[in-house]
Specification:
about 240 residues; about 5% strand; mainly alpha
Length: about 240
């Protein structure tokens, strides 16, 4: 990924990426070394600019889909697409930074990004202190990413309004996110989705007219007719 693409996608230099090596044969282009979770950062890029250039050319030869298809995917599915893209490139991290060149002064974040993209392993780090810091960075990054994905999927289900009950959604999410306990998922679902829908008071006005009409038609049984009409209208009996 070039720094131009990173900027186009709204990534911020020094926060989301740092300037990497020059592209071979094109000194005007430089790689963007993504910081943090490279998969999550790549998802951000595709969310913003898609798989195709303005001219309709695919950005990658091995993977492409329309923006509509991409937007329809859940956070977990998007992550799988990006993971597969890394695999198709041989796990060398070329989607992110390229190789192990010039890693001598890499920060823990840069090493973590390179390792998560498949461009390096923890064994490539000889400094024990730095290695421990990188491991800690990766663990925190994965935890934060998983929480973000969980929230995105809950919000998507809420927007589509096709999740059934909150308990149904919790059951589905527990299967998709085994790293979280049912209690953790339940807490997140109940905090993000207000399952009690507002009552339609227009319905009450309509049943009132129907009940009154029925009571007038049968004045002797007016009280019973009114109560029966309301009950039948509300509960469909």
């Amino acid at each position: 990924m070039t720094t131009d693409i990173a900027k186009q996608a709204g990534l911020k230099e020094g926060i989301d990426y740092v300037v990497g090596d020059q592209f071979p044969g094109n000194p005007n282009l430089k790689t963007a070394k993504l910081l943090g979770d490279p998969v999550k950062q790549t998802i951000k890029v595709i969310d913003k600019i898609g798989f195709y250039t303005a001219k309709g050319t695919p950005r990658w030869t091995h993977t492409a889909m329309s923006q509509k298809e991409w937007n329809a995917l859940s956070s977990k599915q998007k992550k799988q697409v990006i993971t597969d893209m890394y695999k198709k490139e041989g796990g060398n991290g070329s989607l992110v930074s390229g190789s192990l060149k010039n890693t001598k002064n890499n920060s823990a974040k840069e090493w973590a990004s390179l390792i998560q993209s498949g461009g390096a392993t923890i064994d490539n780090i000889t400094d024990k202190k730095l290695r421990n810091k990188v491991v800690s960075t990766i663990i925190k990054s994965k935890s934060k990413s998983a929480k973000s994905e969980l929230e995105d999927d809950i919000n998507t289900a809420s927007a589509k309004n096709d999740y059934g009950t909150r308990e149904d959604l919790i059951k589905k999410l527990k299967s998709a996110y085994p790293e979280f306990t049912k209690k953790e998922i339940s807490k997140k679902v109940y905090s993000l989705i207000q399952d009690v829908k507002p009552y339609d008071w227009g319905k009450t006005v309509n049943i009132g007219k129907k009940a009154v009409d029925s009571a007038i038609t049968h004045p002797i049984q007016s009280t019973q007719a009114f109560g029966s009409a309301v009950y039948n209208y509300l509960f469909g009996k």
